[in-house]
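Progress note, sequence design subtask.
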């Protein structure tokens, strides 16, 4: 199981955690598959790790096809969606199988305490449990999720 740390705008992270948004759109395809884990870092003013979701699969198609099929689960409007994918040939979507909020958000300062020098990813980055600093963060997150969502053992 891979663990992906993704930056998401706060309004979309909230919609994923509420179940309103069941697909997370990406311009670049992360190399994930069904069963992998995504940790959500809410960017913008929130600047905190807020929750996680299990990837149910990955969809790849044109932006217009993606919008036709997934607009009701998108959590956004058509203009914003099309603007986001402007200039791309392929639109990618990570299907959200199940999502869970952390018991307590981990703000950027807290992340930097757990992982000195931490910088949120521009889009996404993989976490490797063999790297000590990644392992410290993962232990903290997995303890907080307390079995509510599947995760790799450390």
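Output:
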């Amino acid at each position: 199981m891979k663990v992906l740390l993704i930056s998401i705008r706060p309004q979309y992270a909230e919609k994923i955690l509420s179940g309103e948004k069941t697909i997370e759109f990406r311009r670049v395809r992360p190399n994930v598959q069904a069963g992998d884990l995504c940790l959500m870092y809410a960017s913008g003013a929130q600047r905190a790790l807020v929750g996680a979701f299990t990837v149910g699969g990955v969809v790849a198609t044109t932006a217009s096809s993606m919008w036709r099929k997934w607009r009701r689960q998108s959590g956004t409007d058509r203009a914003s969606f099309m603007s986001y994918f402007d200039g791309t040939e392929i639109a990618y979507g990570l299907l959200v199988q199940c999502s869970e909020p952390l018991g307590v958000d981990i703000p950027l300062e807290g992340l930097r305490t757990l992982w000195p020098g931490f910088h949120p990813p521009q889009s996404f980055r993989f976490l490797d449990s063999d790297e000590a600093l990644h392992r410290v963060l993962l232990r903290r997150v997995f303890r907080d999720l307390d079995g509510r969502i599947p995760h790799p053992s450390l």
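The radius of gyration is 15 Å. Work on this subtask will continue into the next period as scheduled.
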